[in-house]
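Example record

One chain of 586 residues, shown exactly as stored in the release files.
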Amino acid sequence: MNVSGFINDPRDLPLVRVALSASAIIPAACYLYLPGRFGWWLAVAYWLMWAFVFLDRVTLMIHCTSHRPLFSRRVSWMNAYVPWILGPFYGQTPNTYFAHHVAMHHVEDNLAEDLSSTMPYRRDRLLDWLRYFGRFLAFTIVLLPVYLYRKGRRRLAWRAIAGELAFWMMVAGLAHLNVEATVVVFVVPVLVVRALMMAGNWGQHAFIDPRDPGNDYRNSVTCTNCRYNRRCFNDGYHIVHHLRPQQHWTELPAEFEARRAVYGTHDAVVFEGIDFFTIWLHLMLRRWNALARAFVRLPGAPARSDDQVVALLKERLQPIGQAPAPRGGRWTAAAFALAIALWPATVAAESAAEIMQKQRAMHRTKDEEETLLMRLVSKTGEVKERRLVRYTLTSPDNLSKILIRFLAPRSVENTGLLTWEARSGDDDQWLYLPATHKVKRVAASGRSHRFMGTDFAFEDMQPESVRLHRYELLRSETVDGQDCHVIGAVPVAAAASGYSKRTLWVRKDNYFTVKREYHDRKGKLEKVGTERGLVQVRGTVWRANELQMHDVEAGTRTILLVEGRAVDKGLRENLLTEAGLTQGGF
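Predicted C-alpha cells for this chain:
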C-alpha cells in the first residue's frame, strides 16, 4: 500500500489498520440504539468484543498518535477522527488524553505537580490505589484545565473543557433516546478505561527511588518480552519513552538493548514477561516472589538475590510526600462539590509553583559573565577577600551551565566549580583543585557541605530546581519597602537536600527573590540569604549587585559584590566543560 503523502511515517501503517478495524464497533453500538433491538445478552457480547479484541490496541494507538500526529498536513483534518469520533467509543473524551498525558504528565514526569503522580501513595496497598483513582475520577476534570491555564496553555485548557463537556452533553442527549444503550456504549467504557489508565500508570511509576525521584531511570519501569508489547506498540518500554517521548515506537526495543548497561548503572527496575497491569495486580496481592522472578538482572547493577530484589522493590514503594486526598469519608456524588471546595487551596499551591516558574523564565539570559569580590567575615569581624568570575550559559532547552573560578588570592587561584543543570534535577557538579591537578565530581551526599570555606553550600550554587520542590504560597510581606510573596519550599525527596525547608521572599513587581531562609534537616533556622542593590540589566532580567549569606549558628557571613557584568555577549560553550574548568577553555 502506497502511503506516501497520506501518513507522516510509513512505520505507522499498523496504527491506521487498528483505527480502521476498531471502527467496526461503531455500527455495533448504533445497532443497540435501534428501537426494540437492545438486549443485555447483546450488551455483554458488545463488551466482550470491545474489551478483548480492540480496547488495548486502540488505547495505545491513541497514545502513539497523541505524541506523533498520524496523518500528514495534506490530510491533517483526518487527525481529528481518532480523538473526536473513535475515541469516545473507547472511553476517551475528546482532547483530554492529549492534555493530560502529553501536556501535563510528560512535563511534570510523575513529580509533585503531576496530577496523576503516584509518589505520595503506598503503592502496594489497594486502599491507596482506590484513593488515587477516586481523586483522579472526581477532581481531574477540574484540576487539569486549571493546571493548563496556569502553565500558559490556555487554548488547550479550553479545548480540554470543550471536549469533556461535549462528551457528557452527548451522553445526556443519547440517554433520552436509550438509557441502557448509553450506559453500555459510553458510560461504562469511560469509567473502565479511566480505571485501567490509573492502574497502568500506577504500575509504570510504582517503584520510585526516594533519593532521586526525578530520575526517569529510577521513577519508571520497563517491561520486556511480553504479549502486551507485541499488541500495544512496545508501550512497556516506559523509561525510554519518558526520556525521549518523541522516539518512534518501533525503535524502543533496540534502544533498550543498546543501553542495557546504562539502565544497570542507574539501577533501573526492569521486568521480563509481565506488563504494567500484571505489576499492579502483583502489588495489590503483594506477590513479591512473582515480581522477583520477573526482575531483570542488568549489567552494571548490584548483584542481588531474590530476597534482595524484594527489599529493593519495597524500598521504592515508600510514599514520598503527602497524598493529596480529602480527609475521611467515602467518594460519593459530593466529590465534585468537594473538588470545588478544595479548589482554592489547589490554586494557591499551583500559584506558588507558577511564581517560581515565571521567575525563572523572566530572569533567564542566553549567557552571562560576572566578576565578583567575595568577603568572608568571621564571627569576630575579621575579613578575608577573594576575587572570582562566574560564567552562566543557558542551552536551547533552558538548562543552565555555571562555572565559578577563583582569581585571587594565590591560595585559591584557578580553583573552579562547574555545574551542569539536569532536567531531572540531579545536577552534575565538578570541583577543580589546582594543587592536585585533578577534577573531582561532587557526590550527591556532599552537596550540603560548604563550598571553599564560605557560608554557601554546593547545592546553593545550583539553579533553583522547580521540579524537585513543593511550593506553598504562605503570605505577603514587605522587604526593603517592596511587597513580596512569601513562599515555602520543601524538597520532594528529603534525602536530596541538606535543608528540610526554605522560605523565599519574591518581589511581586519583578519576580526576583530578595531573601531566603534555610532550615537544617532538624527544622532549625541555619542560614539567611539576602540580595540587594537590584538593577534591571535587560528587559525583564534583574540582578542583584550584593549577595549575602549569613550563618545564624556560626555567626559568619559571606558577601558577594558584583564589580562587572556582561549579558548575552556570546559566551563560548567550550568554556563550561571539564576542559574549560581546568584550562580556561583556551
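Notes: The longest strand covers residues 525-538.
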